[in-house]
Amino acid sequence: MNNSTVTALLSAIPELQHLLEIVILLAPQLEKLVSVRQTFRQQPPTPERTYTFENNMAAILREAGRLLVEDEYNRVEPECRDDCPLRLRFAGEEYRRRPKSRNQIGTLFGEIELHRYLYEAVEAGVPAIFPLEIQLGVEAGLATPALAERVGLWSVDHEQEEVRKLLLHEHNVSWSITSLRKVTTSLRDGVASFREEAQLARVLELLEKAFASKGKHRPVLAAGRDGVHVPIRKDGYHEGATATVSVHDRHGKRLGTVYLGQMPEPGQGTLSAQLTSLLTKVLTQWHARGRPAPRLAYITDGGNHPKEYYKQVLRTMDDPWHPGQKLAWQWVLDFWHACGYLHKVAEALFGKAAKVAKWFARWRRWLRDRHQGLTQVLRSVMWHYNNKPKLRKGKQKEFWKAYRFLRKHAVWMKYSQYRHQRMPIGSGVTEAACKTVFTERLKRSGMTWSHEGGQVILDLRVLVLSKVWHEAHDRYLRSRLQPTIVKPASQQVNRKQILKKAA
Q1: pTM as predicted
Q2: What is the pLDDT of residues 251-295, one digit of tens each?
Q3: Can you name the residues that pair with 332 across neighbouring β-strands?
Q4: Distances (CA, A) of 264 to 16, 299, 316, 438
Q5: Are 121 and 128 in contact (CB under 8 A)?
């Protein structure tokens, strides 16, 4: 045997030892796998036997994965207490070593028993920590990052009991409602802090695609907001708020949208602040890249909060491309909202459904397609009003309310011009956000919400709907602090050493 062969064998010894450890650990599971395969081979396959075979194999393999994960995570810290650092520093506080204790942790393969050292704070009143759980990224002391993410994504669409059933069926993890809420809230606290960064990157990416598209019109950055009533526990319905930021290419095609959502609060200040911050950072960074300004559109209904936001915020924004000037936001009154008032006029004038439908179908198209369409619509309205018998008092009130709304908002209803310029005229994406962000999850039969519980779900939903979940989650995992060694064990010498990280 030559020297190269000996060297190769020696280098392979650690790998062989590691493989042997795995075989010993999984010996019972390997025996079960062999037994299940032999049982399946003994008789011709049938749908029933195939079903049983696959489920048995999945259960055995999941248990094998659970054992491997449990063994690996428990190897991160030294077995001997004296080999652990005497003191650590984490988040500005110093901690001293104490004995090990056990904790049940949920993983993708099931629950494992984690043995970890406690570190007690030197300063009184500061909670103790478990450095191993911090290293592994255990969420709320209950779940590994992989399982916590799965729970967060399930909670976006499913009710609590459904999530608990999924956890038990898919991962053999049994949690109480309290544990489920702890994990979901902790995950939300982490990923939601990176919501703006992830959405900013998403909008800038969409702007790049929009400006790379072909066409004679500049792309459009469109914002919108709307309200939706939410059932609050023991307090009836109150108005929550949602907002959208969309990018349209040179042909007016919407390329993508990011979403915001906020539970009811007086004045909707939080939503306004979030939307303003996102828009400001998008335009500032887009300008910093040396790119031309997009056209800016604000498409909403005529509600008080949207109107005040336009007047008090959007019209006062500084223009990065023209210092000393304000950004030129074009407020577009949602076409279908205007049509709603047009239909009310028709109902007041004609009464009969057939006449209402006929008149409305014609003049709705005029409103959308004709130059000065609203002017012509209002002329028709007044001609019919003056040439018909006097309306009853109730109809009079409805008629003039709708008529004045159309007159008052005429400057923001130049739909033919907007369409010619490939500008969006409908707030459909924002109207849809009321449904997708709120209604589909928060307004199911019999549901009521606390402000805090509802906001947890909204913060998770907007990340998924905005297609930035993975970006925000990755940023969150990378941001998590790790403890550092202040005073090593007696045989250690590197005072700046960072604790060994789990694979």
Answers
A1: 0.86
A2: 999 999 999 999 999 999 999 999 999 999 999 999 999 999 999
A3: 299
A4: 61, 22, 26, 11
A5: yes
